[in-house]
């Protein structure tokens, strides 16, 4: 069944989703470098708006989106979309959260190995002619306690992967954690303070909301073990960056790894110059497989929702 309608794709996405939309009869305009001002002047022409994380779907954009029925996020987080304004205007917001689960989870494991075995420091030293083997005593992941903050799809997948490395798991979530999953991975459930105090590694997997802003603040950082490691692949605002800089500079914890920042790209030079911090440029979902799947999932979801609307 062919569907009438027009779609604007505002960010770079894998071509699979675009082909799915076109094959269904939709007109697709691919503008991966469009600015927000350009979008405001053009958005009234489209039934569906597709974005990743670069494009901000603000109140101003939504007010001009006279025909829009769907805003589709090729990824997980919706903090670049004014969801309240979309709801007021009867625009449905969908995402492809399931598509990046494995990619993000694997990066978390990569961060744990990088931190525990000093891989970035070892790499830089060796390439610069410094043989500092004796200075690079690492730790093993086996038997360590991994604290997982947020047990959604990604948090649960991280738990399963870490269990394969014979780590012990502590979990915290504001939503009750499924008992069958707790049994599956031998998860110890705890409040946030207990998790922070007990874990050798802490990884954050929560969305950015008013409740999660600076969830890991100065007080929480002070509760961490002095040799523990902190990992964040969720949203930068979940951690108080200034408090983390102070904590790392004074060697109060073992180290940290960040894929997300309060400002992106990060501008905090003090943060970026720390030798006990591993940094990546928001690449957690950036795998060939993950991007292809996210694009395809969104394409199929858009078609499904438009067909459902036609039947209503």
Automatic annotation (TrEMBL):
Keywords, alphabetical: Amino-acid biosynthesis, NAD, Oxidoreductase
Molecular function terms, GO-annotated: NAD binding; phosphoglycerate dehydrogenase activity
Pfam families in alphabetical order: 2-Hacid_dh, 2-Hacid_dh_C
Domain D-isomer specific 2-hydroxyacid dehydrogenase catalytic: 7-303
Any one Gene Ontology BP term: amino acid biosynthetic process
Enzyme Commission code(s) on record: 1.1.1.95
Residue ranges of domain D-isomer specific 2-hydroxyacid dehydrogenase NAD-binding in the record: 109-284
PROSITE patterns xref list: D_2_HYDROXYACID_DH_1, D_2_HYDROXYACID_DH_3
Entry's family note: Belongs to the D-isomer specific 2-hydroxyacid dehydrogenase family.
Protein name as annotated: 2-hydroxyacid dehydrogenase
Organism: Candidatus Nitrosocosmicus arcticus
């Amino acid at each position: 069944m062919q569907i009438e309608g027009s779609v604007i794709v505002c960010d770079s996405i894998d071509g699979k989703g675009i082909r799915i939309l076109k094959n269904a009869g939709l007109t697709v305009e691919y503008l991966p470098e469009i600015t927000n001002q350009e979008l405001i002047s053009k958005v009234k022409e489209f039934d569906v708006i597709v974005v990743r994380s670069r494009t901000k779907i603000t109140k101003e954009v939504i007010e001009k989106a006279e025909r829009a029925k769907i805003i589709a996020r090729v990824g997980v987080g919706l903090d670049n979309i004014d969801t309240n304004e979309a709801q007021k205007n009867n625009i449905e917001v969908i995402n492809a959260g399931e598509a990046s689960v494995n990619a993000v989870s694997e990066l978390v494991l990569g961060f744990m190995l990088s931190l525990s075995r000093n891989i970035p420091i070892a790499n830089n030293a060796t390439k610069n002619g410094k043989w500092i083997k004796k200075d690079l005593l690492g730790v093993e992941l086996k038997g360590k306690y991994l604290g997982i903050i947020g047990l959604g799809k990604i948090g649960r997948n991280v738990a399963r992967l870490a269990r394969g490395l014979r780590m012990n798991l502590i979990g915290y979530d504001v939503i009750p954690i499924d008992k069958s999953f707790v049994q599956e991975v031998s998860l110890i459930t705890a409040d946030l303070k207990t998790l922070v105090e007990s874990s050798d590694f802490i990884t954050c997997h929560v969305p950015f909301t008013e409740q999660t802003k600076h969830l890991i603040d100065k007080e929480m950082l002070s509760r961490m073990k002095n040799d523990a490691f902190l990992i964040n692949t969720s949203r930068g605002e979940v951690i108080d960056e200034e408090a983390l800089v102070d904590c790392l500079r004074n060697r109060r914890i073992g180290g940290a790894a960040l894929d997300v920042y309060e400002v992106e790209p990060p501008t905090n030079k003090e943060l970026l110059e720390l030798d006990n911090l591993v940094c990546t440029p928001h690449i957690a979902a950036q795998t060939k497989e993950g991007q292809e799947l996210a694009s395809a999932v969104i394409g199929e979801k858009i078609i499904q929702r438009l067909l459902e609307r036609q039947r209503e």
